[in-house]
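Cystathionine beta-lyase, Rhizobium jaguaris. Tokens?
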Amino acid sequence: MADNEDTPTTFGPNTQLIRAGYDPFDYHGFINPPAVHASTVLFPDAETMEKHEQKYTYATRGTPTTDALCNAINELEGAAGTILVPSGLAAVTLAFLAYLSPGDHALIVDSVYGNVRHFCDTMLTRFGVEVEYYDPSIGAAIESHFTPNTKLVHLEAPGSNTFEIQDIPAIVAAAHRYEAIVTMDNTWATPLYFRPLDFGVDVSIQASTKYPAGHADILMGTVSANAKYWKRLKHANGALGICGTPDDAYQVLRGLRTMGVRLERHQANALAIAEWLEARDDVARVLYPALPSFPGHHVWKRDFKGASGVFSFVLSVARREDFKIKAQAFLNGLSLFGLGYSWGGFPSLALEVDLDDRRILKAPEEGPVLRLQIGLEDIADLKADLERGLAAARAA
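Tokens:
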């Protein structure tokens, strides 16, 4: 974990990514920081040990490697402090545990990541927290859902799998009138395309597994808080003893350096594929905020600086009983797209979306929903592979 040291942020985004979080001359000019493997930290004398009067005291509280990544994320997020945890899910759940108590009421967007919903419906309710889900399109009308014990509002924008855009400023304004904390999962956009704290969100969460790491081989999450809520987050993390490993922090910091150029390619590829799919008769809808046809596109364009490489589309299928057969035929017809969970790495991936856990939002009726992670391959090759999948679906 690391507090913000007020590093200047006058550079452009890619320059900032190259320089953020670490000065090579702190370590003899080596461009990347060393991966410090540690648990125990020695003190020079008993007085220093008693008063903790040195920067590092025990590795769960930070090392030079984890601090380098935290400092970089602080700069990108504009945060007072950041902590590292072993996964994106852990980042969300730790934030909830830091700010919620028995008897509290939490408002959670209905398009939330499915594993977060599972945590809310099991662990949070078991701890005596009342959980209520709300429509992501609710905007300022969310105020009607507040009660005297509403303490937290959790946003995810765009929403998981169906990519609904939320009116973040309107929701933040309503929440703060009731003195509720606002947390947001910003994994899709990253701080390059949206900075939650600039819009009044109190705690910004990323699954660094995705675009910051960028190579489909690391699990990590970050939780970044504003000045008002940083100390409470820091104390909760210390009490729970959850921390990121030095090797993973090193790899995420290494991936961060190229995240800007990778995101540009992900966005360009995804937009080209989304437009191509939207023009096809065998595709009912494409769920991608960057498309003018997408509901909420105007809000996305107002608030976001770009779009990442993940979206879904609805396959056009005449009979509901054929949804599963057609979806599986499409997936099995692919060869370049891998069938796998997660996203944010360099390869393209595909899966069928399960929306059965939604409480408010309804699944599209035109056909099954298929999510694509558009990777860094050539667009022509991606189109050819999707064509094979669509042909297999038609033949099924």
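The chain has two domains: 21-256, 260-395.
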